[in-house]
Amino acid sequence: MATEHSRATARLMISPAVLLLLAWMIVPLALTLYFSFLRYNLLMPGMEEWAGFLNYKFFLTDPAFFSAVWKTLELVGGVLIITVVGGILLALLLDQQFWGQGAVRILVIAPFFVMPTVSALVWKNMFMNPVNGLFAYLAKVFGLPPFDFLAQAPMLSIIMIVAWEWLPFATLILLTALQSLDSEQLEAAEMDGASFISRFFYIVLPHLSRAITVVILIQTIFLLSTFAEILVTTNGGPGTATTNLTYLVYVQSLLQFDVGGGSAGGVVAIILANIVAIFLMRMIGKNLDA
Amino acid sequence: MSAITLKNVTKRFGDVTVIPGIDLSIEDGEFVVFVGPSGCGKSTLLRLIAGLEDVSAGVIDIDGADVTGTAPAKRGLAMVFQSYALYPHMSVAGNIGFPLRMAGESKEAIDKKVRAAAATLNLTDYLHRKPRELSGGQRQRVAIGRAIVREPKGFLFDEPLSNLDAALRVNMRLELSELHAQLKTTMIYVTHDQVEAMTMADKIVVLNRGHIEQVGSPLTLYNKPDNLFVAGFIGSPKMNFLGPTYAKEHGAATVGVRPEHIKISKESGLIKGTAGVAEHLGSDTFVHVHVAPDQMITVRTSGDSVLRHGDTVWLTPDEDRLHRFDAQGKAIR
Amino acid sequence: MARAVSTRRKITFTVIAWVIGIAIFFPILWTILTSFKTEGEAIASPPSFLFFDWTLENYTTVQERSNYFLHFWNSVVISLGSTVLGLIIAIPAAWSMAFVPGKRTKDVLMWMLSTKMLPPVGVLIPIYLLFRDAGLLDTRTGLVVVLTLMNLPIIVWMLYTYFREIPGEILEAARMDGAGLREEIIYILTPMAVPGIASTLLLNVILAWNEAFWTLNLTAANAAPLTAFIASYSSPEGLFYAKLSAASTMAIAPILILGWFSQKQLVRGLTFGAVK
User: Fold this and answer.
1) Contact A121 C96 (CB under 8 A)
2) Which of A49, B74, C154, C163 could hold C98 in an S-S bridge, CB 3.0 to 4.6 Å?
3) pLDDT confidence of residue C238
4) Domain range for residue B42?
5) Over 80: is that where the pLDDT of A285 sits?
6) Contact assessment for residue B13 and residue C103, using Cβ atoms and an 8 Å cutoff
7) What pLDDT digit, counting tens, does each position of A40-94 carry?
8) Using CB atoms within 10 A of its CB, is residue B166 exposed (0-12), middle (13-18) or buried (19+)?
9) Which pLDDT score, from 0 to 100, does residue C1 have?
């Protein structure tokens, strides 16, 4: 609903954003694609040569690759389950009437403000450290042997750290959605004789479905490229126990200076991310139309 | 003040033709009302005149100058929107003064004109308030103030009263008519409410599916509707349409008769029926009479009518006041 | 209508909510407390909670050893710079999409969001090499550029959802009142969208402040923001708990304070405008 003139203006005003993003997408992507077909190591400059699919062959037959794909999914899935379930429970709790609602809400959202490197280091050293960590102390109090989280259950530990960072986000979105639920609907259901449990499953949960979709979508985008938490806690280890795709490509390209191999990994990561994205969109796409 | 002329004005949204080509001339100083059911294109037509939409074909003239390609701001028209469209972050004074500020007038001049407008509209005490602190009627007045302050060539109103409650609406109707009498500026007013159209207009334009059904003064439309659509749309309660048998006797495909042109009697008459619901308005009574299983005729009778539900009644249409229509729905005169 | 709730029920929920709230907040609280301890007290067993000799020496040590203020300033420049630049590019784009929607608007928006699906690691190498050749490695300018582009889709999306809440009639009224496009944006749209713009700004400052992929990979000493500064504590200095805590506290304090002061805008922003 507008005039030709305003439509022309609109095109003009949207173009910087579109052109920049297009460049941001196409230029590096094309370069990555190009590098991935080269034998190219930063330690041996000037030795670049065409390698065909060799890089892909090496990368895809590397057992570390399959392990990394699996670890990536494990990490994303684990964090999603914890944050969505935990977020729903927390949102239900915060939606109740109690004293100090505002203060508790501040406490709950605080972890979102903490940068990944800080939270990873704090958890690693001050809580999960088997000698001086707070968890080790608690274990001692209860007469249990200290547990070396990052050595004995490295992936689970990282999932816990990342979930702690993202729980506030999930909680807030779900709480906002919960508060938009018309209380008359719930009262009507109560009049119809629905118990708390059935009210939750038949009314609250369907109402939250759109918010849950948003949580899953946004978190997946960020979680697929989890990096800092791994870098400062385990460095991908022990072995490759916590090496996800992002970290694997990082090791290959910036630690081993293998640009060709790293680029091939990058291309694979992009393809996988898009598969996940398409899969997600298909699965929950209907919920996003609004 | 100005005359506005539309020549073959057409509007298409993609493949959908909303307005297939309209010719209309509006005289200087006229109060013209566009009326029609929702979706008839009346608001689109107004927006075309305002310049908020491009015409797909045709020419719009204001005072003899072609403004078809002119930006809305340069057409010299002011508009009052259905939602009032007040600027929520500005005070009443800021809202009324905004067009003057855009025209680059001096602070003193703006202040003077805003005060004058506020005085006419009883808004002087509210000048410093924000729109959200005003009642619906006051907001409406601010929107009007914003329109009159820059002395436009013409006013465009897009269903301005539809968000007000019934009592306020009657009041504002009077105020708008009063305003028009004072300013004598061309006004184009869009509404779906035929009562608003009848009470305010010098000239009514009845629109249906994007084309003009009839143009004329309220009484012309009421007494001499050109076609079935206008006959059924103008007037409340609606005109009664009588079936083919009766119509054939009068040489028409359909015959219409207004509720006040039917005599109702308990003893004798032309058509026999059963009294249904009677609506007592005090001054008048509207009786809904069932004359056939699927046909009901509304009759206007005196306020002290004592008909009861289920009474057998006789109806007699006034033969001189019949409206006759041919098979295409055109009036036969 | 909120229903009156029995006092007993309210007390129960108060206790549960506070226990859980404090548990979630505890790592931050513990970090802040530890930052005021001596190294000995920091690893003492049993740990002391409040009754220790409060000291500020860790803070001075951290500043002396690694120039906290340089990194702090880098973080400020990078997060604010990228967000403001992003807003300047995004406001006109969001205006177009919200008020002059066409058939393709939705597709363009979806496409913009889909660029977020591109994992950063997939384009790390070209960006790294391009930056190396352009002399942008370890510069604040370089990071501002990258983070602007990283967050642009989110900024556009958020602004779009906020702008859409502004009725188009108001902008049309301004047009009828003689406002040109420039006046329309300056006098009408921007003031009305201030709350939405503020939320967008806040959220993106936080996202940029905490961004830890590009900041870690594209900086060394000069342009390193606080994320990279803290990462240097990963070992073996991380074992000095009190100093680690002091550095951490300083890294998160600005955002924590900003976040708490602007909670209302932030909560709105945190939902990315996706849920009302």
Assistant:
1) no
2) C163
3) 60
4) 4-232
5) no
6) no
7) 777 777 777 777 777 788 778 888 888 888 888 999 999 999 999 999 999 999 8
8) exposed
9) 43
- Count the domains in chain C: 2
**Looking at the partner chain, which of A31, A100, A113 has a beta carbon nearest the beta carbon of C252?**
A113
C178 in the same domain as C41: no
Mean pLDDT, chain B, whole residue set: 89
**Shared domain check, C185 and C203:** yes
Question: B50 to chain C: nearest residue by CA?
Answer: C176
Total beta-carbon pairs less than 8 A apart between chain A and chain C: 304
Query: Which domain CATH number covers C141?
Result: 1.10.3720.10
CB contact under 8 Å between C169 and B73, yes or no, is no
CA distance B72 to chain C (A): 5
Cβ distance A2 to B52 less than 8 Å, yes or no, reads: yes
Neighbours of chain C (3+ CB pairs under 8 A): A, B
The domain spanning residue B44 has which CATH number? 3.40.50.300
Task: Using CA coordinates, name the residue in chain C closest to A97.
Answer: C10
pLDDT tens string C191-215: 888 888 888 888 888 888 888 888 8
CA distances from A174 to A95, A168, A220, C260, C276 (A): 10, 10, 16, 20, 10
| List of chain C residues whose C-beta atoms are within 8 Å of the C-beta of residue B71 | 175
Q: For A154-190, what is each residue's pLDDT tens digit?
A: 889 999 999 999 999 899 889 888 888 877 887 888 7
B277 and B220 assigned to the same domain: no
Which candidate from A1, A2, A5 shows the least CB-CB separation from B71? A5
Q: What angle do CA A272, A277, A280 make, to 5 degrees?
A: 125
Together in a domain, C125 and C185: yes
Asked if the model's pLDDT at residue A39 lies above 80, the reply is no
Do A108 and C100 lie within an 8 Å CB cutoff? Answer: no
A269 with C271: Cβ contact below 8 A? no
- Who wins on pLDDT, A35 or B133? B133
- For residue C73, the distance in angstroms to the closest alpha carbon of chain A comes to 16
C271–chain B nearest CA distance, Å = 25
- Our measurement of the distance from residue B136's CA atom to the centroid of its chain's CA atoms, rounded to an integer in Å, reads 20
Which residues on B lie below 8 Å from A6 (Cβ)? none
DSSP H helices, chain B, are 42-50, 92-102, 107-120, 136-148, 166-183, 194-200, 218-223, 228-233, 244-249
Residue type, B29: G
Residue A1: what pLDDT? 44
Of A2, A21, A103, the CB nearest to C115: A21
Q: Write out chain C residues lying below 8 Å of A100, CB-based.
A: 14, 17-18
Residue whose C-alpha is closest to residue B44's, from B151, B185, B150, B190: B190
Contact C30, C48 (CB under 8 A): no
Q: Is B331 a member of any domain?
A: no
Distance CA C155, CA B231 (A): 55
φ/ψ of A108, rounded to 5, equals -70, -35
Per residue in C214-254, pLDDT (tens digit) is 888 888 878 888 888 888 877 665 668 888 888 889 888 88
Q: Where are the domains of chain A?
A: 1-27, 36-288
- What CATH number does the domain located at A36-288 have? 1.10.3720.10
Cα radius of gyration rounded to whole Å, chain B:
24
Contact B54 A1 (CB under 8 A): no
The mean-pLDDT minimum among B254-263, B299-308, C114-123 falls in: C114-123
Range of the domain at C35: 7-58
As a whole number, mean pLDDT of residues A16-31 equals 86
Q: How far apart are CA A210 and CA A290, in angstroms?
A: 10
pLDDT digits (tens, 9 = 90+) for A274-284: 888 777 777 65
User: How far is the alpha carbon of C106 from chain B, nearest alpha carbon, in Å?
Assistant: 18
